[in-house]
Amino acid sequence: HERDAAVLRQLKKQKAAADLVQTINSFLTSDRQTRVVAADGEAWLNLPDGNARRLDDLLSSGLQTRWEQASAELTQLESAQRELETVQRSLAAAPKEDAIKGIADELKTATSEITDLQQQLNRLDRDLATVEFECGELDKQITTLNRQHLDERVKTNEHARIAALVTRTQNTMREFLKQSSARKIQHLSELVTSSFRFLLHKQSLLERVIIDPDSFRITLIDPAGHQLPKDQLSEGEKQIFAISVLWGLSKASARPLPAIIDTPMGRLDAEHRKQLVERYFPHASHQVIVLSTDTEIERGYFQLLQPHIARAYHLTYDEQSRSTQPEEGYFWEAEATTEVAV
């Protein structure tokens, strides 16, 4: 009897279903009565037919089924209990609202400051772009003013014109060399050397031309290997050298660029003039325009150039209309600027 009571207490403790507890209680009661009768040698249970059948069902399979149901429910209960404990521990570990309120406020403030700083950065970027644009415009204006100033100086005398030509040539060469490798710089030096020696009537004056790849400084070397100062060159030789640099650049570009040459022989002696007529004008480019006076390209030089001339014009100034009109043909008496297309 004590064992049966212990079983019932355990079931109630595990919170088993009430009908299951009642059924097991009935079974245990009947079982005790059966054992009592068996002990007395009597097999009478005095059970109604319904209870007898119910007991028979329990003994055959019902009790096992109820026990399995009870075990399953106990397993579910234990699982639910573990989940409850987990949730309770999580709740206990979570910080209180008061504890995180300060951090949340700081986070909100920091987020607002970041937004403000980002807006300031965007404004600064726009301001920087504006300043860079203005600096670019100022650079263009400075460049324009420098060119205008240089042009004004060039108009003062012929020597300044030659200096400006050399300066512009160096600037052009500098831009070209920025995009060139050391090999191309060496190649350009060789082209300028060959052009200068080809046009120069003093073959013993120059051995080679060296262009510094860093400073773009041009150095002339004489046959003895010594540096040849440019101020030792005559005015004609300086002009021939400037033409040689331009010719070398044209060759190095490997592009068919037309050449326009304005009053090329104003400061040249007869020997250098002949060198230009015979060696430079016919080979300077696929298309060459020579702007000269009739004293520069006189009859003899014109005859030398005749096989290479496509068209020739002379420009006549009309005093009444104050305009210049081009006319075909090259003439010798009129003192007018002429244009020779080669």
Describe this structure in words.
This protein is of the alpha+beta class and 342 residues long. The chain has four domains: 2-93, no CATH class; 106-156; 174-253, P-loop containing nucleotide triphosphate hydrolases (Rossmann fold); 256-342, 2-Layer Sandwich (Methyltransferase, Cobalt-precorrin-4 Transmethylase, Domain 2), CATH 3.30.950. The chain has helices spanning 2-13, 18-40, 49-93, 97-156, 158-178, 182-199, 235-253, 270-280, 299-305; strands spanning 208-211, 218-221, 227-228, 259-262, 288-293, 311-318, 323-328, 337-341. Helix 2 crosses helix 3 (49-93), helix 5 (158-178) packs parallel to helix 7 (235-253) and helix 6 packs across helix 7.
In percent, how much strand structure appears in the residues?
Answer: 5-15%
**Shape designation:** rod-shaped
Q: Number of DSSP strands?
A: 8
The end-to-end distance, rounded to whole angstroms, is 137 Å
Structural class: alpha+beta
Give the mean pLDDT. 76
Oligomeric state as shown: single chain
Spans where pLDDT lies below 50 across 5 or more residues: 333-342
| Range of helix content | 55-70%
Order of helices and strands: HHHHHHEEEHEHEHEEE
Physical arrangement of strands within the biggest beta sheet: 4-5-8-6-7
Structurally, the number of domains stands at 4
Topology diagram in text:
Elements: H1 2-13, H2 18-40, H3 49-93, H4 97-156, H5 158-178, H6 182-199, E1 208-211, E2 218-221, E3 227-228, H7 235-253, E4 259-262, H8 270-280, E5 288-293, H9 299-305, E6 311-318, E7 323-328, E8 337-341
Parallel strand pairs: 4-5
Antiparallel strand pairs: 1-2, 2-3, 5-8, 6-7, 6-8
